[in-house]
Amino acid sequence: MSAVVAEHDEHDHHDHGPAKGLLRWIITTNHKDIGTLYLLFSLIMFFVGGAMAMVIRAELFEPGMQFVEPQFFNSMTTMHALVMVFGAVMPAFVGLANWMIPLMIGAPDMALPRMNNMSFWLLVAGILLLASTLFMEGGAPAGGWTLYPPLILQTGKAFPFAIFSVHLLGISSIMGAINIIATIFNMRAPAMTLMKMPLFVWTWLITAFLLIAIMPVFAGAVTMLLTDRFFDTSFFDAAGGGDPVLYQHIFWFFGHPEVYVMILPTFGVASTIIPVFARKPLFGYSSMVYATASIAFLSFIVWAHHMFTVGMPIAGELYFMYATMLIAIPTGVKVFNWTATMWKGSMTFETPMLFSIAFVVLFTMGGFTGLMMSVAPVDFQYHDTYFIVAHFHYTLVPASIFILMAAGYYWLPKWTGHMYNERIGQLHFWLSAISVNVLFFPQHFLGLAGMPRRIPDYAVQFADWNMISSIGGFIFGASQLLFLYIVIDTIKGGTGEKVSNEVWEDASKHSLEWTLPSPPPYHTFTTPPATVPSEHF
Amino acid sequence: MDVKKKNILTAIILVIIAGTIYVFAVIKALSQ
Predict the structure, then answer these.
(1) What's the pTM?
(2) Exposed, middle or buried by CB within 10 Å (0-12, 13-18, 19+), for B16?
(3) If I label A494, which of A7, A247, A271, A381 is the partner at 20 to 30 A Cα–Cα?
(4) B21–A217 CB contact, under 8 Å
(5) Which of B2, B6, B7, B20 is the mutation pick for testing A, counting most A CBs within 10 A?
(6) Contact B22/A219, CB-based, under 8 Å?
(7) Distance from CA of residue A46 to its chain's centroid?
(8) Helices A422-448 and A402-416, interaxial angle, to 10°?
(9) Residues of chain A with pLDDT under 70
(10) What are the tens digits of pLDDT across the range A94-145?
């Protein structure tokens, strides 16, 4: 670390401020600028993916065909998933990582700033390419986000573009992950030992390793799809001696850890916010670190629980069933630790804390339905029904998305130097928390009653719960506009109240970013901090 | 070691790991 300081002192002291105008945002290598770009891009994609979800819920409002063609409906389910996973949730967490990791570990910037810029712009290129498939002959991919062959091979002109877009998104993610690992390993302030790092940094370190291990696998799988379609290979074609189930194995070897790529940083943010508003140190810091690592390890050895119905040998079913159940143990450790952190704390309920508490409760519900599905014989009933849709939306919307909202409210005052409007924030929370349950809870009933996923029309017995689910969806979608309003309003000055360095009471005892001015200057920690917060130990 | 060199070395090692996994995934599928 001393090398960084020495080098900084050696070179000429030219202007360190940002470039002017639009060019600043295109060529920037500053971690705060790139973090902002990622966060704004993901916010836009959240609304694009959300609009697609509105199309889905409008079509499913009542039985029969209402607004769109079945092919377009299937494109919507596929694109909604791809946009939300690769365009909204993942980039939002990368944005938070860019902004917060250097500030939390006392580093002047990310380790590889030029590569950082390139990862962001490759992401934009990848998503634009993916979006362009909507306007191509034959429509956008419609075989589901899993891109299963042989169905996905029927995609029209859009097919190679979608595959190339996945490659670009994969390269962008790998470069982001490399940057995060290099930053955390090499750029920490001398006093910031690994076991003193904030949980958000720890969860991102583990997530980055997950990304490096899984993204090449996904890239390999889609490359094989490409050669099957255009170069007469038969990786996944039974007629040529291949096996479509092989694709499912490869995909889920990527796909299951991918779920944890979206949830581990969620855990990290929750572990950052809850102690501040409970005014207590995080309960069981080291067990949180080990639980995160355990979840990451287990995520690699459970993939075939997504494929219980493909006809695996019974020994395989049993193995994947029990291995999957094991994940409940480290996850339970985390839920109990968050609860114990709040226990007898002097809690206050500002918007970030409200979203975090809702996350603990609702994520646990999503986790429990996951445990139900891990039971292989029972999964035969749940497979490909709305029960699955309800399960993973509980783990992604009131978990990842709620925590992203919490992170937004928590750090917006730090980023902008302005306070957001707490009353509108609370209104946003209550509308979201109620409507998200109206939206997704009935989908458990629909799934148990046998309604399949990815269909534009359904039997009349599913009508009532679908209508209720759609109403919840419309309210949830509309209430997110409040968040958009708050973000814009806060950037423009918010309540007009000038916030302190700490923003939240005693926050600087928890993490380094609260020792800096709000907003922090363009360059921070050019000299590493001498001491680091030790509240958790 | 100078921190800039350390960063680049870390990146190179991670790129090699990612590349190996990619090649391994395809070779594994070829051998089915």
Answers:
(1) 0.94
(2) exposed
(3) A271
(4) yes
(5) B7
(6) yes
(7) 11
(8) 160
(9) 1-16, 535-537
(10) 999 999 999 999 999 999 999 999 999 999 999 999 999 999 999 999 999 9
